[in-house]
Prior knowledge:
- By secondary structure, this protein is an alpha/beta fold.
- The chain has two domains: about 20-120 and about 225-285, D-Maltodextrin-Binding Protein, domain 2 (3-Layer(aba) Sandwich), CATH 3.40.190.10; about 120-215, Osmoprotection protein (prox), domain 2 (D-Maltodextrin-Binding Protein, domain 2, 3-Layer(aba) Sandwich).
- Helices cover about 45% and strands about 15% of the residues.
- It has 13 helices and ten strands.
- The protein has helices spanning about 1-15, 30-45, 60-65, 75-85, 95-110, 130-135, 165-170, 185-190, 205-210, 235-240, 245-250, 255-265, 275-285, and strands at about 20-25, 50-55, 70-75, 110, 120-125, 150-155, 175-180, 200, 215, 230.
- Strands 7-6-8-5-9 form a five-stranded mixed beta sheet.
- Helix 2 (about 30-45) packs across helix 13 (about 275-285) and helix 4 (about 75-85) crosses helix 5.
- The protein starts with a helix and ends in an 11-residue tail after the last helix.
Amino acid sequence: xxxxxxxxxxxxxxxxxxxxxxxxxxxxxxxxxxxxxxxxxxxxxxxxxxxxxxxxxxxxxxxxxxxxxxxxxxxxxxxxxxxxxxxxxxxxxxxxxxxxxxxxxxxxxxxxxxxxxxxxxxxxxxxxxxxxxxxxxxxxxxxxxxxxxxxxxxxxxxxxxxxxxxxxxxxxxxxxxxxxxxxxxxxxxxxxxxxxxxxxxxxxxxxxxxxxxxxxxxxxxxxxxxxxxxxxxxxxxxxxxxxxxxxxxxxxxxxxxxxxxxxxxxxxxxxxxxxxxxxxxxxxxxxxxxxxxx
Length: 294
């Protein structure tokens, strides 16, 4: 009887303990905060307690996930392959995803969730008016115009084998009558103001939308894929049992244009990442329980 009573007391004590929170992380930039909010709010929609640990620097998210200090954050498959696994880039998105999925599980017991739909890789960007006037929608379209562009690239892109150096060879391009190297933060304004005609950028940057620019499609798939996908630790689904199904419902729902619009809403319109994420999930019909996100 004493043993039964002790067991009952232990069970009651366990029931009284607050559930451990799902610790959701983000890297130190707008897009990562927004997708971190998407994950956090999906977990909260099923009643999970969430602790946000946003704007963590560099590889801190990954190291925290390995030690259990984080449970989930959104990573990029290209970063997983090249930076974390230290393997060469691969242009095949499915192969990259399969590789990181297998190796992260084998080495660290980490799980890659389904890709969210957008790919934040390098892009060549032109003014929207120039794209319409010259019929530019793909990188291949640049070939017929010859060296007609004043080009500006960030310091790394100009010389990287997976940047302009390799791109010229892959597409047989001779597009730049001159090339300037600039700080990445100055490139978009330089293009919008006519100080450059063709720049390197990132495919989901919100300034592409707000400044009326056009990212050219990489029709030969030269740039390595950087698909965004949740990366989860071993306790994530135990802390938020409904999260797996929620992430599967979100899979493939965020286009490059969607992500640009959300980035622009935060960076240019000065809306909060939490509100922008909530609005997106509601528009997609992915939040079914009300009253948890007010």
